[in-house]
What does this fold into?
Amino acid sequence: MKITDVETIVIQNIQPYRGGRYWLFVQLITDEGIIGLGERPSGNATNLDSQISLVKNLCQQFAIGTSPFDIESLWQRIFASRHDYRHPGLDATPALSAIEMACWDIVGKALNQPIYNLLGGRVHDKLRAYAYMPTDGIWENPERAGEIATRLVEDGNTACKFDPFQPLFPHPRDFPLKTIRHVAKIFKSIRDAVGDELEIGIGTHGQFSTSGAIRVAKELEEFSPFWFEEPVPPENIDEMARVAAHTSIPIATGERLVTKYEFAELLKKQAAQILQLDVGQCGGILESKKIASMAEAHYALIAPHMYCGPVAAAAAVQLDTCSPNFLIQEFNANDLHSEIFVEPIQFENGYITPPTGPGLGVELDESVVAKHRA
It folds into this structure.
C-alpha cells in the first residue's frame, strides 16, 4: 500500500468556537482506496493558507509514494532530515502530527482494528473527562460558582476547570492580594456547595511570575485544587520546577510543548506531575504514546489537552484508552464536534466511551462537511 495524494478540508466552526473558528482536516489517500483522516489544530487562526501549504509540502516531500505503515520512518524523516525542521515548535510539528495521525487511521482501517489495539490494547473501558466551568457572573458574585458547580455534579461531572485570573496578557506578572483572595472566595463557594464531589483545576496560561505563582498556590492550597496549570510561562522549565517545589498542588503543563525531547526535560526537572500533551500538536499519536510512557516511568499522569476539532480529539481518545497513566481528558466541544461524524464519540455523565471502529473510530458525515466547508 502506498500514499498517493493528500487533500485538505477547512471547516467553518459554529459558535461557541470550541477549537477555533476553523478546523483544518487532512486526508491521505492510498492506492488501495483507504483514506486516512488527520487534523492540524489551528487555534484561533483566521487565515490557514500557510498551514495548508505546509501540510501539502511535507506530504509531497516525505509522504506521497511511501507506505502508511512506516510511521516511525516517516516521522523521523519529516522531523530530522531537514535542518530547519529539527526544532519545529508549534509550526511544523502540528502539521507533522496531522500527517502521522492520518497514517494511523489508514493502518487501523487496513487491519480492521482501533488504533489503541495496535498500541498495547484497551486499558480503560471509559475515560473520565472534564470541561470548562461556565464563569458568567461568578467574579461579581462568588456564590454563583457554587450554583454552577452543583449543576455540573448533577449532570454527572466529577471534574472541571476554570480560568480565574484574567486577562491572560501581559505575562508573566503578579496579581494583588485582593484579587487572589477574591479567587479564594470563588473556590470556597464551590467547596461549600459540592464538597469533595467535584475536582477543580486552576486554569492559567503562564500569567504569573515565579513569586506570584507561589503566592497564589499558597492561598489556594486549602481547597485542594486538581492542578495548577502553567503557573509560569512554559518555556522556562527551571522556574516551573521552582513553583512545583513550593506547593502541594500538582503542576500541570504541556499543551504548548512538542515532542518527547521537551517533555523529557520537564520530567527530569520535576516541573510537573500532570502532562497536558496535545496529540494534534506534539508530534502525533506514536509520539504521544512515547511521552505517556516516559511519564509513566516518572509516576506522572497524562491529561491530554483538547482545544481542537473533533478529529484531533478522536486521536486523543485513542491514546487515552491504551495509556495506563491516563488521568482525565479535556472535553472542550460544541455541537459540531458530534454532528460532523456519522457515529459521534459518546460523552455522557462525565465520561467518554472509546469507539470500537477501525482506525480513529470515526467517519466524517459528508453532508455536514459540505454544509460547513469554508
About this structure: The radius of gyration is 20 Å. The mean pLDDT is 96. The CA atoms of residues 126 and 353 lie 5 Å apart. The first strand starts at residue 3 and ends at 12.
